[in-house]
Amino acid sequence: MPGTDTVAGAARSAAPQEIYVVPSRCTGCRSCEMACAVEHSQSKSLFGAITETPLPRRRIYVEAVDTVAVPVACRHCDEAFCANACITGAIRRDSRGFVLLDDSRCIGCNSCIMLCPFGVIQKDETRHVAVKCDLCPDLPGPACVAACPTDALRFQEAGDFARSRRRTAAVVGAAAAGGVVAGPGGDADPDPAAAD
Amino acid sequence: MERSTDRATLYGLETAAREGIITIWDRYEAQLPQCNFGLLGVCCRMCLQGPCRIDPFGEGATKGICGATADTIVARNLARFIAGGTAAHSGHAKHLAHTMLKMADGKAPDYSIRDEAKLKAVAARVGVPVDGRPINDIARDVARAGLLEFSEREEPLAWLETTVTPGRMELFTKLGILPMGIDSTIAEVMHATTYGVDADPVNILLTALKCSLSDYAGMHLGTDLSDALFGTPTPRASGANLGTLRADSINVAVHGHNPVLSDIICEVAVEMDGEAVAAGAPGGFNLVGVCCTGMEVQMRHGIPWATSSLSQELVITTGALEAMVVDYQCIQPSIADVAACYHTRVITTMSMAKMPGATHIEFTEEHAKERAREILLLAIEAYPKRDSKRVDIPDITSTAFAGFSTEAIVGALAKVDPEDPLKPLVDNIANGNILGVCLFAGCNDVKATQDENFIVLAKALAKENVLLLATGCASGAFGRHGIFTQEAVAEYAGDGLKAVLTAVGEANGLGGPLPLALHMGSCVDNTRAADVAVAVANYLGVDLDKLPVVATAPEEAMEKAVSIGTWAVTMGLPTHVGVVPPVLGSAAVAGLLTEGIKDVTGGWFIVEPDPAEAAKQLIAAIVERRKGLNLPVPASVAALD
Q1: N or C: which terminus of chain B has fewer CB atoms within 10 Å of its end residue's CB?
Q2: Which residue of chain B is at minimal alpha-carbon distance from A149?
Q3: What is the mean pLDDT of residues A80-104?
Q4: Could you read off the pLDDT of B432-469 as tens digits, one per residue?
Q5: Closest Cα to residue B309, out of B326, B336, B291?
Q6: CATH for A18-156, among 2.170.150.70, 3.30.70.270, 3.30.70.20, 3.40.50.720?
């Protein structure tokens, strides 16, 4: 996972890893959506998933804003409105800090959908339950992150993600100040997102 | 997933890894995960308003910008695949027709008609007068008749009409899929699939079937003209695998497809052998074949075959290759990069197929031997630059019997029954000694462990007494895994098959059986196998869709394999593919190809990546056909159902 081992020898923080998005790297290919749907199918294979009834549902959404594509995924918020609103306790935070939905307890009341500020909880109308990101418990990391061909999605701790962005900004700043910078290929990348 | 089951390939991959050489397998891994829209065939890039994609999970777009559904998009993409394959095969044939015409007009003095009997047989078949005419006049007319196949004609393609069963011609006419010109059919596919033309997936598929018949005709033309110019192959022993390179020789690989180049290189290498020895290589020139042009020279001259297209880079990483001479098709642009790490010269020869980093020597039929000489001089020039410390040739070779053209097979059967050569084959199919026939064709595909599907399937079918035929990269897999040997018969053949192969082998003075599988040539030679099937069908007075004959391309990769598979299905054969083609994004198209088409042509596609499961399905298809002909089904096979 890019960026997870940042400072050599530093102790890992207890903060959970989450999906971070670098929108400038997204090409709108929708590989993340496809990988998400496949991972949440019964067969967990593309060729099997497309023939299943019901069809599997994705939990990440590539939204277009003019010509810019932006993947929108569950933030697993610290102040999780969805969990607070869940009257049956179907949405809870687990020991790692992930906000997870136990759909056997979901009554399909739509409260979480109404309160999620990001609109990343949807209704599965065939099963009458809410559907949200579970960070792919059967995989080492989320399927969407593994499927992203441009590294626009990262599965990192907040501190690590911020550190990598800060480092990129510093490289660009140093170049602007006239310093000699050994970035990728010997040059600092003018796109802060590209040099991560 | 293992990269290969071939020991020499695995050895070469270790060398490549040690030397820091990037191979096709590394580049494949760098492409993962691959685009799921592309894998399903639901991406359309045929106008500038796109690209469009259909969401197979139904949450996103269900139609393209123009309104095309997944069914339309998948069918259009498949049709263009088939057009691409047809263009390649028939371009190869057109090149041969031009060569023959130049030869006949005295403009290509290094070529001649080496098999007059074959030329006359082809001429008679396509209506060119033969009796009392000089051979060059016949050749000129056959070449012109060949070239007439390409543009739009007023009558059906001669190389289709004169080579298939009457029943097939009736069916093709009834379905409206009789091609009237090879190039015009390719153009028709491009027209039908461009923006705003054909939106009906069934109609698009019919156009695609028509194109596949053009592919068949082009391939048949290619094989016929090659045989006339360079000789119809006869059985001979050869070698296979990377161990056929020799440390004491100047090694030259011929790579690509057309014998127009490679056959001349073979001839000139013999003439220049003394120069190679004088340059310090005691073994002189050692020619090896790569890919299908390697099959062409193996079939006709017994030139050893080094490796298939998939593993072509590993010929260079032996460190002992002076020159890789290429024409066209299945040549990875990466070989120039790999060669740059060694002393190897990559030499391109065709005006339409150049490569950055390679040396280009334009090959012209008018000056064929002169150009071949220039090419071989480059190899001699490279030889002193070889770094002996980096020479690392895996000591792995297999014997491979090659040269089983249709004529050679009929000739071998004639030794059993001179009056009625097909009778021994038909009788043994009828009595169940031979359960059926399977043609192995197609490529290696980086998505499958190299050769695994071929070998698992071959062993499973041979055990059930299925007669195995092979072409192209299937022949490559069989060659390097020892399937083209007499020993493989003892090891893998069922008793009935063993008895038949032994009877024919002994009647031909082999002192043992024919090899377990019959090497029928390069991938363009698949119509040789079709000719055997057509002969048997006509002998029995039934059509091809009744015969216990099946085909498989278990590791297919190229557009050409898709077009071959499609004509096999159009000819009425159950046809297996082991790599899932990009059609599953349309349940309608996938259903037509695997089921619906059975009611139309009698053939159908079997899509099955697991070779053991594929073997069961192919045997089931053979059994179904046997029952249809009221032929006995052995109890052991019936129990597999």
Answers
A1: N
A2: B33
A3: 94
A4: 999 999 999 999 999 999 999 999 999 999 999 999 99
A5: B291
A6: 3.30.70.20
Residues of B within 8 A of A58 (CB-CB) are 57, 59
The total number of residues written for chain B in this structure: 641
DSSP reduced 3-state for B594: helix
Instruction: Assess B587–A contact: CB distance below 8 Å, yes or no.
Output: yes
pTM of the model: 0.92
E-strand ranges in B484-623 read 517-519, 549-553, 574-577, 604-607
Q: CB–CB of B4/B448 below 8 Å?
A: no
- Residue-wise pLDDT for B324-334, tens only, equals 999 999 999 99
Q: Does B58 touch chain A (CB under 8 A)?
A: yes
| pLDDT given for residue B523 in this prediction | 96
B443-477: b (≥16 Cβ within 10 Å) or e: bbbbebbbbbbbbbbbbbbbbbbbbbbbbbbbbbb
Amino acid letter, B179: P
Find chain A residues with C-beta within 8 A of B33's C-beta.
Answer: 31, 35, 146-147, 149
Separation of alpha carbons B291 and B329, rounded Å: 9
Q: Which residues of chain A neighbour B56 with C-beta distances below 8 Å?
A: 34, 49-50, 55
Please name the residues in contact with A162: beta carbons below 8 A apart, sequence gap of 6 or more.
none
Question: Would the CB atoms of A146 and B33 count as touching at under 8 Å?
Answer: yes
Question: Does the distance separating the beta carbons of B585 and A34 come in below 8 Å?
Answer: no
Distance (Å, rounded) from C-alpha B152 to C-alpha B2?
48
Q: Strands B466-470, B250-255: parallel, antiparallel or unpaired by DSSP?
A: unpaired
On whether the CB atoms of residues B363 and B351 are closer than 8 A, the answer is no
Which is it for the CA torsion B423, B429, B433, B439, positive or negative? positive
Average confidence (pLDDT) over B158-186: 98
Tokens of B536: 């048997």
**H helix runs in B152-200, sequence order:** 158-161, 166-175, 182-192
Give the least confident one: B29-33, B227-231, B427-431, B487-491: B29-33
CB contact under 8 A, A47 and B580: yes
Pairing between β-strand B574-577 and β-strand A99-101 as defined by DSSP bridges? unpaired
Disruptive mutation site among B36, B71, B584, B586 for chain A (greatest number of A CBs within 10 Å): B36
Find the length of chain A.
196
Give the closest of B35, B40, B587 to A29, CB-based: B35
Domain range annotation of chain A:
18-156
Q: Do B37 and A47 touch (CB under 8 A)?
A: no
Taking CA B585 as the corner, what is the angle to CA B29 and CA B565, rounded to the nearest 5 degrees? 80
- Chain A residues with beta carbon closer than 8 angstroms to that of B37: 30, 34
Q: What is the DSSP letter of B609?
A: S
Distance CA B62, CA B67 (A): 9
Question: B251 with B320: CB under 8 angstroms?
Answer: yes
Check if B30 contacts A (Cβ < 8 Å).
Answer: no
Q: How far is CA A128 from the centre of its chain?
A: 24
Torsion sign across C-alpha atoms B12, B14, B15, B16: positive
* Tokens read off for A67: 């010509």
Contact A59, A35 (CB under 8 A): no
Return d(Cα B289, Cα B324) in angstroms, integer: 10
Residue carrying structure tokens 């062993």 = B459
Answer yes or no: is pLDDT of A12 > 80: no
Share of chain A above pLDDT 70, in %: 84
pLDDT tens track for B341-384: 999 999 999 999 999 999 999 999 999 999 999 999 999 999 99
CA distance A84 to A92: 9
Which residue in chain A has the smallest CA separation from B609? Answer: A47
Of A33, A46, A147, the CB nearest to B39: A46
